[in-house]
Amino acid sequence: MSVSELTLLVLRLGFLLLLWLFIFGIVYALRSDLFGQRARKMQADVAAPAGAPAAFPSGAPVPSATQPPAASASAPTEQFTARPSPVSTAVDDKATSQNATRLVITSGPKAGTEFPLTGDSITIGRSGDSSLVIRDDYTSTHHARLMLWHDKWMIQDLDSTNGTFLDGNRLVVPTPVPLNTTVKIGATSFELRR
């Protein structure tokens, strides 16, 4: 085997290796887009305060001590550090199961559409298994969840890429939703109304 044949063989193997790395990168990107990022355990420096549930969905943001999300039956038990809520609103204007009866989309491709609030959790995202499917480039596969917790409607960002905004503030923890307050997910905005 001459030097030129050896060089050609090394170049072919290098090109083949580069091609396989490119293919694995594409497969990883597609898997992440279709199924979301892998859940990661969050470590806590301080134990959860008394009265706060110990189990939360994997990959969920760190909940506030006063506003933890509903526990998931299949979720692992973890402890979290309490953080203040980024949105402060009056106590009497929170959306509850008694005063909020519908979700109204105010802007985006489905503007004007209304969904009745039945008390069940509403998942929001691009995935076909979401309760409210929003297909735009700025919405993650499983973007956010709207749920009842202690009779108050709470919005929780599910570790989305572009974030969930309540009245212009990006959510860090599950937060109560006031009536007639804008929640923005991707290019779509909605409100909870009577």
Automatic annotation (TrEMBL):
Compositional bias annotation for Polar residues: 77-88
Bilayer-crossing regions: 6-30
Keywords, alphabetical: Membrane, Phosphoprotein, Transmembrane, Transmembrane helix
Entry annotated with the keyword Magnesium: no
Alphabetized PROSITE patterns for the sequence: FHA_DOMAIN
Annotated ranges, domain FHA: 122-171
Amino acid composition bias (Low complexity), ranges on this chain: 58-76
Record Pfam families: Yop-YscD_cpl (PF16697)
InterPro entries per record: Cell_Proc_Reg/RNA_Proc (IPR050923), FHA_dom (IPR000253), SMAD_FHA_dom_sf (IPR008984), YscD_cytoplasmic_dom (IPR032030)
Gene3D superfamilies tied to this protein: 2.60.200.20
Top-level taxon of the source organism: Bacteria
Segments of this protein annotated with the region Disordered: 58-95
Protein name listed in UniProt: FHA domain-containing protein
